[in-house]
Amino acid sequence: MAWAFDLVAGPYRGRTGGLAWDGKAMLFSAVLEERIERFDPASGKTGTFRKYTGRTNGIAIAADGSVFGAQEGGRRVIHFLNNGSTAPTNDLLDGQHHNQPTDVAVDTQGRVWIADTWNAQAPYGPPVYPFPDHASVLRLERDERGAWRLNRVTSDTRGPRSVRLSVDERTLYVADGDVERDDACTLRAYPLDGDGRVGQGSVLHAFGAGERGIQGMCLDSDGNIVACGGWKKNGPGPAIYVFSPDGRVVEKQPAPADWPMRCEFGDAGRDSLYLTTGGGHLYRAQKIGRKGAPR
Amino acid sequence: MSEAHGQAGGPQIEVDNVAAAGAGHIIDPHPSWETVAPDILFGEGPVWDPRNRQLFFTDICGDTIWKWKPGSGGEAILKPSAKANGMCLDLEGRLVVAGWGGRTVFRIEQGGSLQTLASQWEGKKLNSPNDIVTRADGSIYFTDPSGGLFNVGMVQDDLQRYLDIAGVFRIAPDGRMSLMTADSVYPNGLCFSPDEKLLYVNCSRERLIRVYDVKPDGTLGPWRLFFQYAHPERGNPDGMKCDVEGNLYCTGPGGIWVHRPDGRVLCRLKLRGHATNFAFGDDDWKTLYITMVGSVTRTRLNIAGVPSLK
């Protein structure tokens, strides 16, 4: 049965992006309005969680309730602290500035996994620093003194657009490739050992040439990857895919608008799927028959 | 940092856009130039110290305030520098600094200690002070856009913007701070006319220069449009200064634009590279020190600039 999406917020000026369920409400990025919004399903109202986010897209909530954001405009991952301030992290990889992070995930050890990719929209400020010759998944972790250490954890990605970890944190899922740079778009999986070391990756799903692939994803309670992507321009169209952990497409639903951007489970039973779009919407489909993975 | 002379490396300067006879009054048609600081990341904040015949400038991304003396070369005087940006001299010749990344305005005392002059407005942290000028009455005016909270390689500890305005502020001689205007979305360079009856403020996002009448008490009247840039070359209004005849110089598309007091373009110093700011200097105030992305260079003019020390 087709999921019934309703528009619950927007449209905003420009694309909406990353989502995170805070336990009571859905945080989501109005990327070009440079805000993180908060939709409260109890009241049906949307307010602003944080202004002046510098084109933050992907967001993830840490154990203490603070929020990490992939700040595309600032070419860094930032940390929205609970006191209202915003801290930088380490944006130097081997002494060089990385790309423009677009998505983040936080694991139970507090490490931040980053989809660090190219972006069609240049970062803020004069172009002082060159871009690296790779676009990889990076990971921030605290050193013994509490300072952020930044490492590169993939070497075979072309342009990672979304990162998620399995519930047992033994698998890293990466939506890779930017069709507008002529990349082949894939869904990839990397085994992780108990120390977080990343093993050899494999392709779970390969999209056809010219297809937009996956922009955003989340996990359901069965460990499936719920991924949104595609576009009207070609291929199967804008859609939400449900991939099994081994990469089979077990369900596919049409998206309610073109350019689906990111998706996340929310609401009291975490049985609703929220979706952001290139047109700046926040859609919600209630009781879709799936629940979000435990957080 | 070493002193480098000659024509190799650094920016090349040409004079173009000669809109009317009179450009030769400003600069020769084929000016020579000399790179004085070839090894910096992002030059800004140049100010000539006439008492000690030396140039101060900042390297924002290098997080350093430099002193450069002809014949002696460069010396770092403050590192880290709060990602310092624009600078000026107060009436006593002390450096007053727009602390871009650190979100304050501070003064470097004669003994080298730092004195914070401004850090908040109405209980909220400033955005990121960008450029700064002194008025003859001892008051200090500075712009407060938000770029120091976002620009790559220029931020400090707290990247949250709290103010909904991007103001031009005045610090009175008694230390009191007041908001002069919040007309611009990204106020950047600012300077007074030689008689201090006008204040020019440019906006990098809108690519224009506003001009205000300055009242005797230092407050401003309503703004008028002085110039709107529409040139296709890269570059937005940034550093800005006046010469003694009231011509206004502004970094903009492709180099430094020279405007007559009525706004018309007199000429442009076309630069190979990204100029951020400049300062008149040397004993006759006819040397133009230009801060660039990657270097500081200088060239000679045929007209003197307004001295940095009132």
Mean pLDDT of chain A: 96
Shape of chain A: globular
Low-confidence stretches of chain B: 1-8
**Strands across the major sheet of chain B, in which order?**
1-24-23-22-21
Distance from first to last alpha carbon of chain A = 27 Å
Helical/strand content category of chain B: mainly beta
Q: What global shape of chain B is seen? A: globular
Question: What radius of gyration of chain B results from the CA coordinates?
Answer: 18 Å
CATH topology of chain A: Neuraminidase
Proportion of strand residues of chain A: over 45%
Low-confidence stretches of chain A: none
Instruction: Give the name of the CATH superfamily of chain B.
Output: TolB, C-terminal domain
Approximately how much beta-strand content do the residues of chain B carry?
Answer: 35-45%
Q: How many strands of chain A?
A: 26
Domain count of chain A: the total is: 1
Mean pLDDT of chain B: 93
**Total number of distinct structural domains of chain B:** 1
Query: How are the strands ordered across the major sheet of chain A?
Result: 1-26-25-24
Question: How many distinct helices of chain A?
Answer: 0
